């Protein structure tokens, strides 16, 4: 009897494009050096950093169903953890990172423990209220620049690796992005992640099964805040400046748009959304100062076309390709 051929594993379009995108991002410094265009590295750094921040939001929004309209608070706390310590002459990157993680974790624990006792529009408004409270707090700190912001005196120094160097910062942000993507993948497919996703679908049933959903959601909220804070530390070294506007509701809205544009609840959605939004923004700004009037309809079209944004469009291409396979190929794959 002739043995049936081994089933061939098909790579999805979203997986292939995402992997190619990571490879392209890894080659950005080489391209910028060959073209003598340092702005490309700066632009790519901004994309990667905001992709990390959007990925942190996707943990609670996409997988946990928690719509936070104040998530930029932790981006701003990460920025100020670097700029305030630098203002006082402390440029040790490890100490700045530790401060960022501690501050963002404590604030996330405090605000999350209150906000997670509510749901829906109440949760949205409470997260927004906390973010605006910290926004006005930093506006009132005149010794740290107030509304005018605070310049980063010295770049974060990680044992001789100074992040104000453009290529060093980019590679650091890219490595953190890759590690965050891997950790997020492992997290959402672990028992912890399954409970988070199941709580999004039916929290009362998970509680009836004996799972303390409040603790699980609080834990993922604190993890999300810490990751966003690390993105803020990198962003401070990119702009070499800290401003209360980094934690305003408009920045939180941009993070939500990135997640929605790329694909809510998908692994590479935040990266795709950050890439699409920032590149589209730069392209439309070159055409007109009223670029948001053009970007808005584009976003609406993508959301109407696919509920999962760009990642959903790629998934629909995979489904169409699967429907167009010949019956012979289907039979071979099923054996």
Structure at a glance:
By secondary structure, the protein is mainly α. The chain has 14 helices and four strands.
Topology (SSEs and partners):
Blueprint: H1 13-26, H2 28-35, H3 39-61, H4 72-87, H5 93-115, H6 121-140, E1 150-151, E2 157-158, E3 161-162, H7 166-188, H8 191-208, H9 213-239, E4 241-242, H10 249-262, H11 269-287, H12 291-305, H13 309-323, H14 327-334
Antiparallel strand pairs: 1-4, 2-3
Write a structural description.
This protein is an all-alpha fold and about 325 residues long. It has one domain. The chain has 14 helices and four strands. Strands 1-4 form a two-stranded antiparallel ribbon. Strand 2 (about 155-160) and strand 3 form a beta hairpin. The longest helix has 27 residues, at about 215-240. The two termini are about 15 Å apart.
Structural class: mainly alpha
Q: What count of domains describes the coordinates?
A: 1
Q: Which series of helices and strands comes N to C?
A: HHHHHHEEEHHHEHHHHH
Strand order of the largest sheet: 1-4
Most strands sheet: 2 strands, antiparallel
Report how far apart the termini are. 14 Å
What key attributes describe this structure?
73% helix, mainly alpha, 335 residues, two-stranded antiparallel sheet
């Amino acid at each position: 009897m002739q043995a049936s051929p081994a089933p061939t594993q098909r790579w999805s379009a979203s997986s292939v494009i995402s992997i190619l995108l990571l490879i392209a991002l890894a080659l950005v410094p080489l391209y910028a050096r060959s073209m003598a265009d340092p702005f490309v590295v700066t632009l790519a750094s901004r994309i990667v950093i905001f992709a990390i921040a959007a990925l942190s939001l996707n943990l609670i929004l996409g997988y946990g169903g928690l719509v936070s309209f104040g998530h930029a608070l932790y981006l701003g706390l990460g920025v100020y953890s670097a700029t305030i310590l630098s203002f006082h002459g402390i440029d040790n990157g490890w100490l700045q990172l530790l401060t960022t993680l501690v501050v963002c974790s404590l604030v996330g624990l405090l605000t999350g423990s209150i906000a997670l006792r509510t749901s829906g529009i109440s949760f949205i408004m409470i997260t927004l209220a906390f973010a605006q409270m910290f926004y006005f707090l930093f506006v009132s700190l005149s010794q740290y620049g107030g509304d005018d912001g605070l310049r980063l005196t010295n770049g974060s120094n990680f044992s001789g690796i100074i992040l104000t160097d453009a290529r060093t910062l980019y590679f650091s942000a890219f490595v953190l992005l890759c590690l965050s993507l891997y950790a997020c993948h492992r997290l959402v497919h672990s028992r912890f992640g399954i409970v988070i996703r199941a709580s999004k679908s039916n929290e009362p049933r998970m509680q009836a099964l004996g799972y303390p959903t409040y603790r699980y959601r609080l834990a993922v909220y604190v993890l999300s805040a810490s990751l966003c804070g690390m993105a803020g530390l990198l962003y401070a070294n990119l702009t070499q400046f800290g401003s209360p506007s980094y934690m305003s509701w408009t920045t939180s809205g941009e993070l939500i748009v990135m997640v929605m544009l790329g694909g809510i609840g998908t692994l590479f959605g935040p990266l795709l959304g950050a890439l699409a939004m920032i590149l589209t923004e730069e392209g439309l700004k070159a055409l007109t100062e009223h670029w948001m009037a053009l970007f808005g309809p584009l976003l609406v079209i993508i959301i109407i076309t696919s509920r999962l944004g760009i990642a959903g469009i790629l998934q629909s291409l995979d489904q169409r390709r699967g429907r167009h396979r010949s019956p012979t190929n289907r039979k071979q794959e099923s054996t």
